[in-house]
Give the backbone structure.
Amino acid sequence: MKVTVVGTGYVGLVTAVGLAKLGNEVIGVDKDTSKIDMLEKGKLPIYEPGLNELFLSVVEEDKLDFYTDIGAAVRNSDIIFICVGTPSLDDGTADLSQVEEVARTVSENLDGYKLIVEKSTVPVNTARWIKRTIELYNKGKRVDFDVASNPEFLREGKAVYDFFHPDRIVIGVDSERAENILLELYAPVNAKILVTDIPTAELIKHASNSFLAMKISFINMISDLCDKTGADVKMVADGMGLDSRIGRAFLDAGLGYGGSCFPKDTRALFRIGEEYHLDFELLKVVDRINLKRIEKFIDKLKDALWVLKDKVVAVWGLSFKPDTDDIREAPSIKIIKELLKEDAYLRLYDPKAMENMKRLFPPDERVEYVDDMYSAVDGAHALLVVAEWGEFKDADLSRVASLMRTPVVVDGRNIFEPGEMAKYGIFYYGMGRGKSV
Ligand code: UDX
């Protein structure tokens, strides 16, 4: 099939490359010409494990092309996937201006039947607005198109795997024609396909992400009690997770959730509940518990060092989670801000996200970026583990302890075992795992 994917970000690019790999002819479009320039030169504007090889192979097979002219792309396609950003506005509602802009452009280029597919995470009933916009800008002229919802469930760092091995594919449609097109498109993917009406599909996405965020805030609430009572939150989570109705996944206590999805989706869903005058306070509490992680984490550092002024603090992990270069809503951002307020010296290391972080915190006399995890701790008064990249878990702790000025580790992702740390003379603070000092 001939497909246009609008938006070449973390979702759009994986979708475009994945659909091309399934044998479709795909055009990726983005109004950010610098991204399109990079892609046309065979370079990815993002880091996503496994994406580069796949991207190069589909470009080689001439299955994937890039345009900046979205109108031309639409006229050359049967299916248009909307994969643009839907960031939070100040009040938490989703900013749908990029979605509306795509709908307007599509309406001006309807030279025959098109299927417009929402893949971006959007509030329930956004499809109705897309449909109305296309009709409105065609001045009520009878035009032949359908709108469908096909939410993405791609985890950053595992997005390529998730595209080809999803737990489920959700298709929200209101015509048989749209249903048949999407069933044919996804036929090569061996996964459960759930066909629903459009609002249901839109809501499945917001509800799923908000539920996962709630699970994380729940275990973080419990970890605060573990800190007070000496219980071990990892074991509590293991005990809970053995109940098949609960499941162990997404019960890892720590610095909480970041990224471009959970924070925005929980806030957006809360605002949608408010608009219908429903009590969605639960989601407000989920957000509040999550935001509190940073304060709890800094308090542990203060408990260890007393005074932070002029102390050298090493930070391992700047991305919002491992295996991505994405720093959107990363806990590291708030932590760096807090430490700079306290006049500390920062030694920052991340395997992939440093270039993105330098745009927010350029190197200066108090902010230094280093090339490896051991340089970060050399002469440091404390080490903060903020994103749990695999290499940190394998760190040589005796080397870390000997390099540090004072051997203090505040482990925001519980990657180390408290019992182990005393062996190296390390003053260790976990999240919900007590402290071994
Ligand atoms: C999420 C959803 O998983 C995915 O289905 C959706 O399409 C997009 O949003 P993503 O945000 O990429 O994916 O990462 P995910 O692995 O879900 O983690 C989200 C955040 O929760 C990260 O900041 C992670 O550090 C945090 N997290 C995750 C926890 O704090 N504890 C956990 O147990 C799991």
About this structure: The chain is about 45% helix and 15% strand. Residues 152-156, 209, 212, 216, 250-252, 254, 256-259, 261-262, 320-321 surround uridine-5'-diphosphate-xylopyranose (CB under 6 Å). The two ends are 62 Å apart (CA to CA).
